[in-house]
């Protein structure tokens, strides 16, 4: 059985070759694209299972590519970019990216992100829990359907936002450490994972909290982690 096809979108030849060599060594199938135009053509023509996307391309910004691909496909997109500001990460996630890896990155970290993405694809993003529905105040998680509702309206969460919310819900009332959460979400506990966790928590709160500056559902324990409050 063939491994999933990965599209690598990167204009820097050295980085592109590093990623390609890594994928080849681990027997992944892949195509490469040095520009946004080539990336969109490859995505349409070959329907990759995962896209690794640099944001700083010569012909168009990566955020635009994410929006274009999201207009017709739900293909997981992992951004790999030198842009390290939280605002850049949030913009990419809001546009439809599923994950964000900051340059410089380690080969092991890239492979870990890919493994998590493929596991999510294989299990359909399902979370196996005893109850079919989690209700907390105005928020409801329907695990069977993989949907989250707030005041009866469905929220559109990225796969990682959904997995993060389910992890907190499963442990409602408990403080989960940064290390525990990052290992559960990404399978690793790199320093970059904690930074990514902070970004994903910010985007998740924007969607579920009536007032993100005064959170009702997710409490921050500074220097420790996060806790799902029982409303």
UniProtKB/TrEMBL annotation:
InterPro entries to which the protein is assigned, alphabetical: CheY-like_superfamily (IPR011006), OmpR/PhoB-type_DNA-bd (IPR001867), Sig_transdc_resp-reg_receiver (IPR001789), WalR-like (IPR039420), WH-like_DNA-bd_sf (IPR036388)
Chain ranges of the OmpR/PhoB-type domain: 131-230
Keyword annotations of the record: Cytoplasm, DNA-binding, Phosphoprotein, Transcription, Transcription regulation, Two-component regulatory system
DNA-binding region: 131-230
Record's GO cellular component terms: cytosol; protein-DNA complex
Key word NADP present: no
Modified residues (4-aspartylphosphate): 54
Cellular compartments annotated: Cytoplasm
The Response regulatory domain, residue ranges: 5-118
Protein's name according to its UniProt entry: Stage 0 sporulation protein A homolog
Organism listed in the record: Zongyangia hominis
């Amino acid at each position: 059985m063939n491994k999933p096809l990965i599209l690598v979108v990167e204009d820097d030849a050295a980085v592109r070759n590093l990623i390609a060599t890594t994928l080849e060594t681990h027997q992944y199938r892949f195509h490469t694209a040095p520009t946004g135009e080539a990336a969109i053509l490859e995505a349409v023509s070959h329907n990759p299972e995962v896209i690794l996307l640099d944001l700083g391309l010569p012909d168009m910004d990566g955020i635009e590519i994410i929006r274009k691909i999201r207009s017709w496909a739900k293909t997981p997109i992992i951004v790999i970019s030198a842009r390290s500001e939280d605002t850049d990460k949030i913009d990419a996630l809001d546009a439809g990216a599923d994950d964000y890896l900051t340059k410089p990155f380690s080969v092991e970290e890239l492979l870990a992100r890919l493994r998590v993405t493929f596991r999510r694809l294989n299990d359909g993003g399902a979370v196996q829990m005893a109850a079919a529905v989690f209700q907390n105040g105005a928020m409801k998680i329907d695990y069977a359907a993989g949907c989250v509702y707030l005041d009866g309206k469905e929220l559109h969460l990225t796969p990682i936002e959904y997995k993060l919310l389910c992890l907190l819900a499963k442990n409602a009332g408990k403080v989960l450490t940064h290390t525990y959460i990052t290992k559960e979400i990404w399978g690793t506990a790199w320093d970059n994972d904690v930074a990514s966790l902070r970004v994903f928590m910010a985007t998740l709160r924007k969607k579920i909290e009536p007032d993100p500056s005064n959170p009702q559902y997710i409490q921050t324990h500074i220097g420790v982690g996060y806790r799902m409050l029982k409303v």
